[in-house]
Amino acid sequence: MLDPQVREQTLLVIDDERDILDAVWRLFRKDYVVLRADSIERARTLLDENDVQVVLADQRLPRHTGIEFFSELRTSYPEIVRVLFTGYTNIDDVVDAINEGHIYRYIAKPWRPAELKLFIAQAFEYYWQRREREELVEALGEANTRLEEANAGLTHANTRLEETDRLRTVFMEVVSHELNTPIAIINGYTYLLKNELEGTLSGVSEKSLSRVEASAGRLKGISDNIFKVFNDEGPAATLRLRETASRTLAQSLHDHVEPFLLRRQQRLVTQLEEGLPELEIDPEKVLDALVHLVMNAIKFSRDGETISLSMRAHSEREDWITMEVVDHGIGIATEDASHVFSAFFSSFNTGHHSSGDFEFGKRGIGLGLSVTRRFVEMHGGSVSARSEQGQGSVFTIELPSSQRAR
User: Fold this and answer.
1) Closest by alpha carbon to 51, among 14, 3, 12, 83?
2) Count of CB atoms within 10 A of residue 225's CB?
3) pLDDT digits (tens, 9 = 90+) for 363-389
4) Which of 34, 85, 324, 366 could form a disulfide with 346 if both were Cys (CB 3.0 to 4.6 A apart)?
5) Which of 321, 319, 320, 259 is nearest to 294 (CA)?
6) Is the pLDDT assigned to residue 166 strictly greater than 80?
7) For the segment 346-367, what is each residue's pLDDT rounded down to a tens digit?
8) Strand runs (DSSP E) across 168-266, as ranges?
9) Which pTM was predicted?
10) Cβ contacts of 380 within 8 Å, gap of 6 or more
């Protein structure tokens, strides 16, 4: 919108008396562009050639009255503000013209210069206010149109999202069946063979069956992690909150990871701060998160090393708890550090990938830390990692001790 101080403003004056035209021109020439017409015909020409905002016309004109001309002007140039001045007329005609919108206002002859200047200034102000209002209404209409288009797009996107979610559910059900059924068959036949041939298997055969069983178990673990990611990212994901003691949580964690620690001759040292309150958490999800962190530490620590788990009150936030898993293993490569919590990311160095659970330095399909982050964030908490390559890693979980503390 133009500033009133810089926009050009044009006043058209219509009167058949030259002295009146000259007097009005001298009065307004410093404030406006002043056009003069001594007839309606001349006025029409000037209106066609110029951008006029206000017209000041005498009521008594040759072959027309000012009100008649303003009635015509209202149709051809409705945006122009019309001001009438006259020395004699029927006041009822003027009132009717004002009421019908033919004129903005009128001033009687002889006028006082200060009064006429005020009236004309108000007429220009009225023009620009109405112009700005119309522009605002137009802009609002365009904004509403864009909003309607955006809403239509959002509705379409929501429909597609609902369809995608439905397809994902179907996919999960089908894949779950297709994966878990052959895994169950493999485990069943392995069990039958081991029992049927117990005492007759050679060392090689027994080792082969054990590897089949272990591979089926790893496949089952991968399958479970995939479905955890899918199940707990949807809108139906919920927490099953229970009061859980930190000591109980730590003991459950140790029970889960002990076979892996034994295989690698490693130790898990637990440090629990005294006086920790019971945690209002979903114990299965928090336990899963901790298991993934400790299993990560086991894989990336050398045989015989010590891994530590600590639980303590948060140093800054009341009613929050900090859990840390610390190892002294190989650490995280600099280029991998910002991606470790991303689903299906394990490392930019694919030479370290392995489907095994225990091999030192080998990596899986990259779901464990993603599951950890998702389960922690569902509680309103956060998980972070700091690491120096070759010096080990520290994974920190920060959780509210109850949902009221979120």
Assistant:
1) 12
2) 20
3) 555 567 888 898 899 999 999 999 888
4) 366
5) 259
6) no
7) 544 444 434 344 455 455 555 6
8) 242-244
9) 0.48
10) 399, 400, 403, 406
